[in-house]
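Per reviewer request, we include the raw input and output of the structure prediction for the construct analysed in the revised manuscript.
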Amino acid sequence: MKANSPFPNPAFLNEAADKLSALLKQSPAKDIEQNIKAGLTSMLGKLDLVTREEFDVQTDVLARTREKLAALEARLNELEKQRTE
């Protein structure tokens, strides 16, 4: 027994974890897990999603477009002001 170990026999715990893992691999739980993963993958594949990179690119395009729009609005206001003077 190690002095700093909170458990009397860590090898026993490792062995128990290995046995539990082996049991789960042989049980329907593994099949259920695989079915859930396949279902989620299928559902996500049907959604019209974009990557983070594509989203960031479009965000940058929108920001530049807004800047151009603001500049054009300011220019239009300036021209309208000149026309009324």
